[in-house]
Hints:
Order of helices and strands of chain A: EEEHEEHEHHHEHEHEEE
Largest sheet of chain B: 6 strands, mixed, barrel
Shape of chain A: globular
CATH superfamily of chain A: P-loop containing nucleotide triphosphate hydrolases
Structural class of chain A: alpha/beta
Strand content of chain B: 15-25%
Number of helices of chain B: 13
Largest sheet of chain A: 7 strands, mixed
Oligomer: heterodimer
Radius of gyration of chain A: 18 Å
Radius of gyration of chain B: 33 Å
Strand order of the largest sheet of chain A: 6-7-8-3-9-10-11
CATH class of chain A: Alpha Beta
Number of helices of chain A: 7
Number of strands of chain A: 11
CATH architecture of chain A: 3-Layer(aba) Sandwich
Amino acid sequence: MLTMNNISKSFITDDVVTHALRDIQLHVNEGDFVSVTGPSGSGKTTFLNIAGLLETSSSGEYLLDGEDITKLNDSGRSRMRNQKIGFIFQSFNLIPDLNLFDNVDVPLRYRGLNASERKKRIEYHLDQVGLASRMKHLPSQLSGGQQQRVAIARALATSPRFLLADEPTGNLDSQMAQSVMSLLEDINKAGTTILMVTHDPSLAARAKRQIYIKDGHVSELTQKNSNLHLVGEA
Amino acid sequence: MSAFFTQLELGPMFRALMRNKIGALLIALQIALTLTIMVNAIFMMQQRSEQMARASGLDEANTFYLSNTVFAQNYNLKTALQQDLQRIRETPGVVDATQINAIPLSGGGWSMSLQTKAGDDIEGTGTAVYMVDEHGINAMGLELIAGENFQNSDIGWREEGSTQWPPKAIITKALAETMFEGDWKNAVGKTVYIDNHQPVQVIGIIKALQAPWNGWNGVERSMLVPQQLDSKGSRFFIRTEPGRRDELMPVIEKMLAESDRGRIIRNVTSMEQTRDESYREHQATNTILLTVIIVLTLITGFGIIGLAMFSINRRTRQIGTRRALGASQWQVMRYFMLENLLISTAGVVLGAAGAVGLNIWLVSTFSMTPLSPVLLVIGVIALLIVGQLAVSYPALVASKISPATATRGRA
């Protein structure tokens, strides 16, 4: 479903070249739940942004659902994000001036769905995260955990094949984090492929696959006798 | 089509605006105020421009006048006048000349009231009075459209302090229409009364001749009477062949001055200069009004840019999130342009009401004609365009915000 061949990303600032990612090779199958860990500044967010089409790679080939993303223009990437990818952000990224209904509605409008279809999806997914009764509330009236649930509902409303989660529990207490993680596991069981960046080893361990990024290189980890071992590039 | 309207996000956009009213409300009020002032200022400029564009009836491009002030003792005014006029008319390039008591559009002149019936208690029609001889019509370049000109035998002398009026007059079409309820052609041969009781027969109609006062609502009402002033101060009105006015103005001034040392020739002025001076205040007012319109429009435009830039800076993360969720650059740009359109629409609706209200006050206070709805519509459209132009740059900036802002910015 997701294949990266020799993906590299470098940034140039004041004639200084910083290599954020170097020759990434990665294949993610449909239905995978992949956690991405690594130290701060290792390139996790850059990796997630390229995987989610939020930024482009400097070189390499990226196939999503068989389509070569590197050949798409900005408009094509926007359409692809809307149709195939759902995003969950660490800071939830709900739009503060919109109520929960309108927040979940945002990507559905970009999809161009009609009003009744949108309403059906919004109500279904807000109900799925236990917030159907609060759809007229503003994000500021909710707890952090509830806001992240709304963000999950928004991500799922477009029925994405691929869910990208950037530190989804980073701003939540442990109880809320467990709850959100359980929700993600349920979503994965229902068939959605998930790529999750996290700092939390215990949450990362709950994924089917774990990859580790350091200095722009990606390695796959396997769990043997409760110890993680690098097994080479993923 | 349905998908297109869905993507416009008008409902959520409106609800979001309602939750952040202050900035939008201030801009809407600024737009409203600008429209109110702009439309009425344009209306006032339009009225002044229409006034300035009115034809005086004269051959302005080829006419000028001068003052003749006699200071010599034992001076034969009547003989000197005839000699002066004769010399002027014989000057090569001069078409004709006449003595005149007042100059159109100059701001100073004579006026009387004309009545269709004699009597002290009969309401009359105000008219400017020009005293000329039989050369008057030709010298001024007027167009006689009915009746006849004065004969030499009609011309009489008017002594200083006299209250007697000659028995004949030529009036403008506008004066005839006012006095005879629009039937100006039938005015020829009719008797009207001046100074309540003195009968005057209308012998001719001229197409147009404006009064000396451009702001008077009866500026088109004038009459010519066949009289020459027996006065030490008089004016000569001279018409030249096309294109020779400027050349002949100093020639005639010098010729008159040298021909008789018992008087002073001064104030040699063309009719075009007189028109310019007459409407100088109008032109200054129009310039001020135009400046006000431009400044107000710029302030409004900059206000819109400022609010939009502030709003975009405040919502950078939000815009990045929208991009991450699938908004294209065009959809982000359109969002801000539509948001401005909503605010501007509220502003122009308020402003249109304000413009009409202000116009009603102006009309009732200054007896102006009402505002044209077309002008209001043009004002509304112009401000909506200004709003869209002003917001286009900030909207473009917003559209360039990377979707990666959704994950990188932590604000």
